[in-house]
User: Fold this.
Amino acid sequence: MINIGIVGLGTVGTGTTRILLKNRKLLRERTGLDIRLRKIADLDVESDRGIRLTRDLLTEKAEDVIDDPDIDILVELIGGTGVARKIVLNAIKRRKHVVTANKALLATHGIEIFNAATRYGVRIGYEASVAGGIPIIKVVREGLVANRILSIYGIINGTSNYILTKMSEENAEFGDVLQEAQRLGYAEADPTFDIEGVDSAHKLAILASLAYGRQFTVKDVYTEGISSLSPMDIGFARELGCKVKLLAIAKEQGSRVQLRVHPTMIPEDFLISKVDGVFNAVYVKGDAVGETLYYGRGAGDMPTGSAVVSDIVDIATSCEDGTASVRPVVPVLKRAISVMRMEDVLSMYYFRFSVLDKPGVLSKISGILGKYNISIASVIQKGRRHGKAVPLVMLTHHARERDVTRALKSINILPVISRKTIVMRLEGK
Assistant:
């Protein structure tokens, strides 16, 4: 028998509990293991969560789970990086295996946690920390183990993807769609981590650590959010045959890897551009397998709970066959790899200038771009308002980020520019 203790009975904790209770017989039939839910800790043990739980199963103290010598696997589902870190480290010191859905914890304190797990000979399961019910951790760590990972593109935040989808479909303003998302429960009361790209950056740090055999943290990821996007830019992207997504990107280039999260234009014929609403998708390109795509629900009680239980079963199986303490939590490669500075990144760019409608404006802007080795691929200019501000849209060929930064600094102070230039990067062309 494998005994499970859960700390945190919120949305994911409830889903995990429901699956463990409802499918206990199914899990036994499929794995030969008797996985028993022994204790659940939560500050609120009185609220009705739609599950029939006996009072002796519940406790308000996480210590009752951590200190119970009969519990083999502790499942941390409270979130955050403070209390959760203490709970996980204390469980590891008591030689309990840990399963967590906490991407912020791993992206911030992953090095400390994985080192502790190695020292005490326990396993860390974290499938649920990235893309909810999509088994992307297992894919990268095991399914594609024979591959050198060339690139990863991820739509891994359902809130931002929902907002961008609605803005595109309804030509709606960001603020209006955000309020709707909050009303429907797709966005938190404080949506900062979602809309500013922080949540996606946490998840990318975890995926990149697996893919490239080095522990990255969220500080290694260049991050921009979607709060400054307007329907106008999404409309211009459509005219250029693209969709706008908040994309998490990891790309290997020799001994360096790009790690970045930002609004990105993607050609409409790319499969990942068709992922809309609250759904997630992760594209992975390996040197042997080529292009692969993984799609599904990236959040929610049951999809994320499914991923948690998958880790529980995986660790429980290894406990039974005696391999739990010898499997590495993160593959370590001997090849050194560093993070590429954002200023060195090469990309195509979308610019929307707000210019005064006067003769010679285009030549002034293109002259500065040319000075910094930025070549124009296409131009869109609509409407005439003599002497007043109009949008001027340009799509560039590949250019260096530092050159773009310098060029825009010079352009934005021109007398013919009425407001700061809007910039987006483009992938896939």
